[in-house]
Amino acid sequence: MIISFWRYSHLALAVSSFLFILTASLTGIILAFEPIQQEIESPVFAVEEINTATLITSLKDNYLEVFGVKVDNYHRVSASVITEDGDMAEFYINPATGEKVGDIAQESSVFQFARSLHRSLFLKTTGRFFVGLTSFFLLIISITGLVLLLKRQQGLKNIFSSIIKENFYQYGHVYLGRIFLIPIVIISFSGVYLSLFQFNILNHAIFNAEIDLEKIQASPEISIAEFPIFKNTPVSKVKAIEFPFSTEVSDYYLVELQDRNLAVNQFTGAILDEDQSSVTNQIWQYSYVLHTGEGNLIWAFVLLLSCVSILFFIYSGFKITLKRKASKIKNKFKQADCTHLILVGSETGSTLSFAVWFQQELIKQGKKTFIAQMNEFSYHKNLQHLIVFTATYGVGEPPTNATKFETKLKSIEFINKINYSVLGFGSFAYPDFCKFAYTTENLLDQKNNADCFLSLHTINNKSEESFNRWLAQWGSLSELNFPKFEGELLSEKRKKKTYQVVNKTPILANHHTFMVELKSVKKQNLKSGDLLAVSPGENHHDRLYSLGVSSANTILLSVKLHENGVCSTYLNNLNVGDLVQASRLKNKSFYFPKKAKKVIMIATGTGIAPFLGMITHNTKKNPVDLYWGARDHKALTHYQAIINSAMENDRLERFIPVYSREDKKHYVQNQLRENIPQIVELFKNGGVIMICGSIFMQQEVLALLTEICEDNALKSLSAYQNKGQLLMDCY
Ligand SMILES: Cc1cc2nc3c(=O)[nH]c(=O)nc-3n(C[C@H](O)[C@H](O)[C@H](O)COP(=O)(O)O)c2cc1C
């Protein structure tokens, strides 16, 4: 696995503190309910509108003696008093009347348990230390996460732009990271800050009133109701008041306000001493409220959701890491003995998985092959073939393990002639598609003794089909026969199901196409656009087909019979009633849009199958145009009835067949060019373009769409793709 400093720090800290973070989040979820419960249960008094003078007077009127009052973060006022019956008691009061409104309840044992675990893991000082350290780790994990997010989204200004989907866990990790990053930074920072007090690194300043007792006056005495400081201070600003112990003039009120401490003469109301609350204390107060959610229902709820999100981050983070760890660089031979060298530029490991597979296949074919990261490039005179597999990051930049490649290459002289081939991995969603692969090819181009064996091939979104096309070309040039790369899609152990053939058309002469209709033996919910991986037998790999769902809810497959095609031959030999083993792969990114003012479907050949299903089930009668490219009108034979029925039922507005050997003799992209205003309208109005069929057609159509976007001052095509206005399933 190859990772950058930020990714490594993010991962290493998450792994090392995962058990503590897990405990803190689970207990945090429980504790978040406490302020929610308190907030709901607490009697509400308008403490902003009641002044402290009223509070003190009413207490003095109601009780024999008052020791003190406290106002908590929920704005509940409690008093410690001697009642008329002579009992010492502490309870909640109405601040306006001084009357008792409720007992101070014992904290529930669930919250007590969760709090102890949350604060000290039941390990006293050692536990508190680990909890503090965990908060610190969480803070760093959040900061490194932010850096990774900024890199992924290409800067702050794009932070809320749509996220490029690679898989569910990666998408969820980034999506929720964006939402919960700030609350988690606040939780972790406040946690660290509160911990500093536990270890006396920071201390609460204690207010020691400095008063010259000789000079305290008992006159002019005024009633408490007239004390300016009490009259002008609402109860909401008070944290605690300690009442004078006796009626001696040297005893005074000790008042703790939100922002300062005061000593107040009990006869004259004069302020005897005053101390601003220290910054440390104030930050403590904010940290405490932000960390616990006390007194703010909405924030408590945010804390609850943040703790739940941390659980998701832990789970999805591990899923992502395990996936990335799947491929590792391993070498069987010494580099000096190898004729083939594969260099890999990969940040998150997916390019590496292609490269490792290719290395193994070359070795199987008897080629001594070495694999290395691009940064580790070194030359040996036995080298004949240099194959570079590289991803692109940032704005067309190299992945972290390829940053030194250019310098290394410049310092190398190829003593003997070598052949090089570059394979670029990237995504159309980025403006600089596979740019670093182009840079690499240019650099190699300039070297002496280096010949281009196969010119640059680019792969969008880790497309296995596209990789297989490169493989076939590279194989034929080097006279090697490679099996198909079937990557993770097919290597995953999926459950196979049994399907029965309910219909099969004969082969269409000259076109070699046929339709198969399958029905799942057990009930299954399928959607047009899903993929069916058909098993042609034990010794063969599965083959993927885009499926359509017919009006009778059967699976429609449109198949082209290939001369040596194991799976297409297998399907063609089936008879009605035969059973087929296959598994369904959900392909959510290629479903018919639920809401779209207009849909343009573009297909060639058998790529029409999912669209046949989609138009059949277009019950809302959304306007759909279907462009379909084929050699001649006979190719339509199998699909004609479905298309006619969809048009009659207004489920398909326009069907535009484009025949390359008839009429104008042109291709779908030529036909689309005649309808540019309609495409511009569609992009502007949130319509959707769906493409299914050959990669060649896809590339031509994408080139046209890019041109249309540029010429008509629209957004970039990748922006529409990110918004789900361009859906593709090409092979
Ligand atoms: C943050 C980020 C930036 C990217 N930038 C580009 C880019 O500029 N051009 C491009 O073609 N692909 C870009 N990609 C797509 C990756 O190159 C592509 O997903 C590649 O298959 C990843 O390979 P890896 O898993 O081996 O690192 C980017 C991906 C991410 C996450």
What's this entry about, in short?
The protein contains 21 helices and 25 strands. It is of the alpha/beta class and 731 residues long.
Keywords, please?
731 residues, alpha/beta, Rossmann fold, 5 domains, 7-stranded antiparallel beta sheet
Description:
With 731 residues, the chain is α/β, with parallel strands linked by helices. The protein has 5 domains: 163 residues; 116 residues, no CATH class; 152 residues, Flavodoxin domain (Rossmann fold, 3-Layer(aba) Sandwich); 96 residues, Elongation Factor Tu (Ef-tu), domain 3; 139 residues, Nucleotide-binding domain of ferredoxin-NADP reductase (FNR) module (Rossmann fold, 3-Layer(aba) Sandwich). Helix content is 38%, strand content 21%. It is built from 21 helices and 25 strands. The strands form 4 sheets. Strands 4-3-2-1-5-6-7-8 form an 8-stranded antiparallel sheet, covered by helices on one side. A 7-stranded antiparallel sheet has the order 17-16-20-14-15-19-18. Helix 6 packs across helix 8. The longest helix has 31 residues. It is elongated, with a radius of gyration of 36 Å. It starts with a helix and ends with a strand. The model has no long low-confidence stretch (mean pLDDT 91). The structure holds flavin mononucleotide (FMN). The site of flavin mononucleotide (FMN) has 25 residues, from helix 5, helix 10 and strand 12. Its EC number is 1.6.2.4. This is NADPH--hemoprotein reductase. It is an enzyme of class 1 (oxidoreductase).
